[in-house]
Amino acid sequence: MYQLQDVFKKSGLPTLTFVEPSEYNKIKVSLRTKGRGLVVEGPSGIGKTTCIKKAILESNNRQEILELNSRDVNDIELIRRLPEMEKIGLVIIDDFHVLKDEIKIGIANFMKLLAEKEDQDSKIIIVGINRAGDSLVRFALDLNNRIDTVRFEKNSDTKIEELIKKGEESLNIEIERKEELVKLSTGSFHLAQLFCFEFCISANVIERQSENKIISNSVELIKESVIEEIGRVFHGYVREFSIGTKLKRAGRAPYLHLLKWLSESEGWSVQMDEIILQKPYFKGSLSQIIEKGFLSALLNKKVELQKVLHYDSYSKVLAIEDPKFLFYLKNLSWKKISRDIGFSNIDFSAKYDFALSFAGENRELSAALFESLTENEIEVFYDKNEQHRLLAENVEEYLAPIYRSEATFVIVILSNSYPKKIWTKFESDQFKHRFGEGSVIPIVYTDMNITQFDLTDKIGYLKFDPKLPFKSQVSEIIEILLKKIETKRSNVV
To answer: What residues does the AAA+ ATPase domain cover (predicted)?
Structure first.
């Protein structure tokens, strides 16, 4: 008499509903190869560890099996000591990607040694998220030819449907809306098990039925029920991560957008260099949190977030650790969550929030404004930050649209040097029509005769006195600029 918890398993190794993933035979062959290490990588919750355990059982492997988890404090010390041991048998190291580099180096060198010896009594299996193998190879470059790397992709709809049908047969039931459950599972065996379990509970099916029973309950209700249940925990994770180190209401919310892009990704992970190329409107804010280590620091500081997210600073990959978290993200209202957290807006019509126009003599002030604004997750065009993009380009064609329309506001720094420069003349010709639109913000040096730039009293401007303390003036200017962009964002529907 099969019982529900043994058919659709929310945790542990499924037996009645085990489905061979497409990578199954690769795993079996690799397990037969003496000494040669195996790396199994891919998104969480798609059956990597389950597949390995099932393959070991089917191979009648008589070696002693040791399962270690890199998140377990007691296991970590044992993992560290593995290279000192002999005849360790078959060792599975799960969640390898969360280990410290010093331990990864030791394991990498040990796996290389075992492969060279074709050791009959020792074999290591590494399990991790996408690009887990990269963490090994970068510490021992010649290891790549001495290990097998099996990459899991998300499971096909056919595989998910096969799992559901096995459960139906075991419980003598028929689920009418299987297709919806398949789509809801988004390629995850774990989610499929969870949804089918909840579906049966809602239909009062807790064991095999004596007569075939057709279940036609609402999939939407099950979905909402699961979202409500997991949302009690995951809402807090979303908020904590989205705020980052500090809530910047006027900023472009790069942390929140990373979660949004994760929910849309095929492999349940995003690579930062790739995402910056794909999302040019977030180039500055993303570069800020990556290059200055803010993203790594956030996840190291807020340990609870490590349950659902992992960031590898070497490969620059941010990945989801819990498939339920992915499901939650996929069903979020991003506009609503952004308002709840406190962001002014998360939809942007301009590539830059501000574009700086200045003479070379005023670079110190311009650089300070750029640094402070980008620290607040504001997108700023600053020529020095774009030099690599200007190379081999027609500079006038590149700059013209930025000052003409691609920046919400143009900050023009007016000193006595400004009217004398060729490039400032070119830049001002691009944005002078925007004075009437309220899109140009002048910052005027106190020794500057503003009539030289044909400004009138109708245009509000900020002052900068080179004789007064530099930092305090910059801070005051930044505060006003942030309020200006926040007001602009709030008024955009």
So the answer is: 34-151
